[in-house]
Amino acid sequence: MLLRFFIRCSGADSSILSTCSPGEQNKYAGIGATVFFTALMAFIASGYALYTVFDNMYMAIAFGLIWGLLIFNLDRFIVSTIKKTGNLKNEFLQATPRILLAIIIAVVISKPLEMKIFEKEINQVLLQQKNELTLANKDQIALQYNPKIAELQQNIIGLKNEIAIKETETNALYDTYISEAEGTAGTKLLGKGPVYKEKREKHDAALAELQQLKTTNTEKIRDLEIQISSLEVAYTDQVNGSQPLIDGFDGLMARISALDELPWFPSFFIFLLFLAIETSPIIVKLLSPRGPYDYKLEDEESAVKTWASQKVEQRKLLFNTDTALNKQVYDDLSKEEEMYRYKKKKAEELLKLQADAFHKLQIKNL
């Protein structure tokens, strides 16, 4: 059962192969097994690759199965069409397009499995890239908010400086009228005289202005702090809103790029391994010696070719003979008097009918 299945996978003619020795059958069963397992490997690799793209197991399995069947059919067709002629050069020329295609397929198959094999290392690279993207994203968004926040903070500092300057002036006036009362400065007279009263009024006016300035600037500072808080909330919301895009930066292209940043040596040998697997059906067919099956197949094909050539030649001879006979028959008929009179009579009848029809048409037009 399994032997017949692998023989079918090889693309060999089972009716011819059944007349060959068990060794010959085993050889083609081995070729068929190579074709089958190559297609199986293509199915697994493409399924995983598509899973990283669609993130859907059923879709990945469906498309992976289609890809595996495509590779299976292609390998089976190529292997079955390479004829063992005993001339390795001609056989290699037949296989050259398939080998070039195998290189492309090997790249397609090996990349997904490389990503699976080096998944932990790729995740580490992606984590670093995500962290860099997160920081860059925060810096880029900050460029939209930081200048405005800095301007508002500078306004707050200016308002606080106004209060501090006014407090300094008020304190200086306080020290002035206290010194006047103590007699340590100003008029040097102890007691609360007219000068003291004047300086006290200046201080009280400055103190009132200070209180009003504090009230006004405190309200302005509160408004500015609310604006700063709003900008900080907007900045945080925008950073949080864009973060899922960065967290989702782990698709197929991102993983391939991360894989390229890893050392190339292991990936190269994995590629060579899959190239060997992908080209193994054709290599097995090229290296296998010419056996009884190849001779019997060549005999059957040559018999069909000979029979087809004979049929073509027979049709050509039949056509040429029939053409010569028809020419001779018509030449003989052209010389008979009775055939001439009959043909003349029919031509006269045809001319009369045409003349009558033309006459009727002319009358109708008048």
Automatic annotation (TrEMBL):
Superkingdom, taxonomy of origin: Bacteria
A Pfam family recorded for this sequence: DUF4407
InterPro entries: DUF4407 (IPR025519)
Ranges in coiled-coil conformation: 196-227
Protein name (Swiss-Prot/TrEMBL): DUF4407 domain-containing protein
Keyword set, alphabetical order: Coiled coil, Membrane, Transmembrane, Transmembrane helix
Transmembrane segments: 28-51, 57-74, 264-287
